[in-house]
Amino acid sequence: MENRQINFFKTKDFNTVLKPFKKGTVVKIDKFDIRDNQKELNIGLFGWYAICPSKELKKNKLHYFSLYDEPLILYRDENNNIRCIKNICPHRGASFFGGTLSNGVITCPYHGAKFSSGGSCQNLDRITCSHIVDNNYDNYAKRIHLSQYKAIEKDNYIFVHFSKKSDTDLNNLNEDTPLSNYELSDNGFVPEDYVSEEVLVDFKCDWSRIIENHLDILHIFWVHGDTIPDKDVNKNVLVSFNQKFNITPKYIESIYYYKNDPRKEFIRIKYLPPGRILIYKGDPSVSRYLQVLDHIPLGNNKARVIVRHYRKFLKNKIINDLILFKETQRKIFYKIFDEDYMILKTQTYNHNMGLITKDEIKLLGEDRIINYFWKWYKKSEEKDNPWKNINKTENLTVYDEVILKYPPEIKKLEFINNIDIIRKTLLRFAAPLLFFMLLI
Ligand code: FES
Ligand SMILES: [Fe+2]
């Protein structure tokens, strides 16, 4: 495991950076350690993105989503292999929305073209008339073919490799970044030792702003201080840390050690581009809790987050069901996202209106990981141009109705979850009690 050794060698000292919030609440980052001797991140915005947990992708169901505003579909073919195709029928450009999938064959709702899982059209006679295409028929037949990206299922996630362009032949596509970069076992823990649950949320705000938020330790105490069940994460407690920042070609990370116990890690935040953040509660080798956050850039001001938390405690399923652990955890996550949401939306607006300029932003020493992220992001956006010259539209697009499916307004999610908790509580506790009372 890399960088686990606590090895302070200060290259720069932002001694006692004191960050005042309101009413005497402070977070203090005392010692700042930067390992500048390491290389730069060499990964850009092209690469693997976790799109959804495996269980979300049901047989014979089309899963609509987008990456950088390019409409896409995921599905399982007849051999249970994962397919990611462009949601644009190669006949006349209609969406497959409203079409069907049966045994790996996808049917367009517009003129009924059927495409095999390999991507070729199986019923050309349905959409062509020989007297129109006559001698050009063969050429036409070659052109009408689904365009695809690489997709794979691993660790109970569905991943898609987003690259410069999709292709009719998957063999023509190279991998910009290997999927192994995301390997959890290479990042300090064995997934088999843990149990996990996840939550998915859609945000109507900028993708990179959400990543910034998840790299930001300072806001946790203030924004989430009343919600996160950790005695050290509290609005009114003074917490003091030493910080170490590592840059490697594959990831960047910030580690926070307790100042009064410098060998003890409070939290470790690791960014694995393009889409993944790992948050460890304590040293990865002993951490009983880990969050894996996958960020999906659906489009301009549209992003999805999958939060999967792995834990070593409370592994018994029956006890979990009984105390409604999953629902309670979900409730906490929705609350945390809700606390961030307005901030993210207003930041996105301010950014898009050109109201946030470099001169007006004062990043502090402890914001170093954020500073590094922004520089990397701008450079990568220019280099890769993932938007592929798609016009960024401010307004909602017709695809939003199809794509935004994990209710983007988080209050709704909280409400649905609360109803679920009430319903299950009644069922589990009140119903047997009622039954017992009726008996006596
Ligand atoms: S647009 Fe799909 S079959 Fe015509
Ligand atoms: Fe947050």
How would you characterize this protein structure?
This protein is an alpha+beta fold and 440 residues long. It folds into two domains: 17-44 and 193-425, Naphthalene 1,2-dioxygenase Alpha Subunit, Chain A, domain 1; 47-172, Rieske Iron-sulfur Protein (3-layer Sandwich), CATH 2.102.10.10. The protein has ten helices and 18 strands. The chain has helices spanning 124-127, 130-133, 137-143, 207-215, 218-223, 317-322, 325-352, 368-384, 400-403, 410-439, and strands at 17-20, 26-35, 47-53, 63-67, 70-76, 82-86, 100-102, 105-107, 114-115, 148-154, 157-162, 195-203, 239-247, 252-258, 261-272, 276-280, 289-299, 302-311. The protein has a nine-stranded mixed β-sheet with strand order 1-2-13-14-15-16-17-18-12, with helices on one face. A six-stranded antiparallel β-sheet has the order 3-11-10-6-5-4, with no helix packed on it. A three-stranded antiparallel β-sheet has the order 7-8-9, with no helix packed on it. A hairpin with a 5-residue loop joins β5 and β6 (82-86). α7 packs antiparallel against α10 (410-439). The chain is globular. Residues 1-26 have low confidence and may be disordered. Bound molecules: FE2/S2 (inorganic) cluster and fe (ii) ion.
